[in-house]
Write a structure and sequence with these properties.
Elements lengths: L8 H17 L7 H8 L3 H13 L3 E3 L5 E3 L5
Antiparallel strand pairs: 1-2
Amino acid sequence: MPAPDRRDRATRDRLVGRLEGEFREMPGLQLTTAQAARLLALTPDACSRILAALAARGVLRATSSGHYVINQSRP
């Protein structure tokens, strides 16, 4: 699966939703950007933008070890 074009909003929104779903279904999940990129079959750069978007929305938070985890303080 090739990396989606940045301008393809629908594809990006689906990927954001998929990654959010993975974290919500597995609350103990901890992924680095590289691991999440492999999971979604994306380039690390594209995946980094998706993770940053989820962090900006308060869905995820980055740990000091560079992993992303679900933000437990969010309902």
